Amino acid sequence: MGRSHAPGWTRARVGRRWGAMGELDEWDYLLPEGCIARVPALERSGSRLMHLPLSGGEPTDHAFGEVLSFLRLGDLLVGNDTRVMSARLRATRATGGALEILLLEPGPGVVQALLKPARRLREGERVNLVGGGTVVVHGRAKDEGVFRIEFDADPIQVMASQGEIPLPPYLERQATSEDAERYQTVYAGPLGAAAAPTAGLHFSTELFARLKERGIGFETLTLHVGIGTFRPVKAEDLAVGRLHEERYSISPALVEAIRRTREKGGRVVAIGTTTVRALESATPNGDRIPVSGASTTNILIRPPYSLRAVDGLITNFHLPRSSLLMLVGAMVGRERLLSTYRSAVERGYRFYSYGDAMLLI
Predict the structure, then answer these.
(1) Contact 48, 356 (CB under 8 A)
(2) Is the terminal CB of the chain with fewer CB neighbours within 10 Å at N or C?
C-alpha cells in the first residue's frame, strides 16, 4: 500500500520530480488508514455516493440508491460482467517453503500466474498444491514477475476445489465465505478476472429492477481484469503511454443499444473504469459508437484525453498514483479530482474496492 508518513496515514512512494516520475507524483494524495474499507457495506446498495457534476460545481453527498435521481428515461448503464476467479492457491516447494499462486487466466493448458516468493524459482520446478495436485513452472512470461505454469488437472476445477477469492493486498486479511459472494457483481458472467470490477459491486437485483421500471437500460461487456490491478503505474508506462494488456469482448447487442441510446438523446454511463477502457478501445477516433468483437487493450487514459464513448461514470475511490485515478482525472481534471478526494476524506467516505462510490455526470 505504500510507506507510512504519519500514524494512521498512507501514501505511495514519492520519487524525484522529473519527467514521467514527476507526473506520477502529481497523482499522489494522503489517506487516513481508517478511510480504507476493509469489509463490504451491510447491503450491496448501502454505500454512500458522491456526485461530482461534470458541468462544474461542488460535490454533493447521497446514498447510493439515489443514483436513480441522476439518471433519466433513455439513459443506458454499461457494466463489466467478468467473473472473478478463485485465483489464489497455496503450494509448497520441494524445499518445504510456502508458495502462493495467483492465476491471471483460467486456462486450459499452460496459464500465466504471479508466484510469491519468486526469487529462486527454477524453470521445470514442480510444486505441490496444499489441497492436492501438482504444478510445473515452465518459466517466466514476457511480463515482469509473471510465470507460465501448468497444472496436472483443469485449472478451473482446481480453483473450484481449493482456490480463494483474491482480495486486494491493502485489505490485509484473508478472504471469507462472505467475500465469495460480495467480491462478485450480481451480473457476473464469463470467468476470467483476477480482481473484481468494483464499481459494479454496489448494484443489487432490487436496484436493477427499479432502474428498469424507470426506463433506464442496462447492458454488459466483458473485460477480464488482470495484472494491472496488482501493480502501480510506473514511469515507463507513462513514457510509452501504455498499460498492461487486458482481454475484452463487446457484443453486437451492446453496440446496437448504444446506437439507439445516442439516436434518442440518451446518455451512456459506464459502471467502472474497466468498462470505460473497453469502450474507449473499441470506439474509433471521431466516432461515439464502439465496434463489436473481441480484442485486447493496453490503453492508458489520462489528461488531456477526451472520452468519446461515455457520457458519465460510476466509480469507486482509487489508489494514489494509479491509472484508475488518472482515468477519472481525464473527465474532470487532476486538480479538481484531488480536491474532491480531499473533501471525501473530510466527509468520511470509505475508499477502494469495498468502499463508497462516485458519480460523474
Answers:
(1) yes
(2) N
Give strand pairing partners of 48: 63
177-219 pLDDT per residue, tens: 999 999 999 999 999 999 999 999 999 999 999 999 999 999 9
> pTM of whole model > 0.85?
yes
Q: How confident is the model at residue 132 (pLDDT cuts 50, 70, 90)?
A: very high
Please give the grid coordinates belonging to residue 99: 508458495
- Amino acid symbol at 299: I
Q: Distance of CA 255 to CAs 76, 199, 204, 208, 282, Å?
A: 12, 21, 24, 20, 10
C-alpha to C-alpha distance for 307 and 329, rounded to whole angstroms: 11
Give the single-character DSSP code of 106.
-
Domain that holds residue 139: 88-163
Q: In whole angstroms, what is the distance from residue 94 CA to residue 122 CA?
A: 12
> Cβ distance 296 to 246 under 8 Å?
yes
Give the start-end residues of each E strand in the chain.
9-10, 31-32, 48-52, 60-63, 76-80, 83-84, 88-92, 98-103, 111-116, 126-129, 134-140, 146-151, 191-193, 217-223, 242-250, 268-271, 293-299, 312-316, 357-360
Residues in the chain, overall count: 361
H helical segments located in the chain: 19-25, 155-162, 177-182, 205-213, 235-240, 252-263, 273-282, 323-332, 334-346
In one-letter notation, the amino acid at residue 213 is: E
Distance between CA atoms of residues 348 and 213, nearest Å: 32
Q: What backbone torsions phi and psi does residue 192 show, to the nearest 5 degrees?
A: 165, -5
User: How far apart, in whole angstroms, are the C-alpha atoms of residue 84 and residue 344?
Assistant: 28
Report the distance separating Cα 273 and Cα 248, nearest Å.
13
Last-in-domain residue among 134, 163, 192 = 163
Q: Domain with 117 in it: what CATH number?
A: 2.40.10.240
Nearest one of 203, 217, 225, 337 to 274, comparing CA atoms? 225
Q: What is the pLDDT of residues 39-62, one digit of tens each?
A: 999 999 999 999 999 999 999 999
Residue 319 near residue 352 (C-beta atoms within 8 A): yes
274 and 348: one domain? Answer: yes
The count of structural domains within the chain is 2
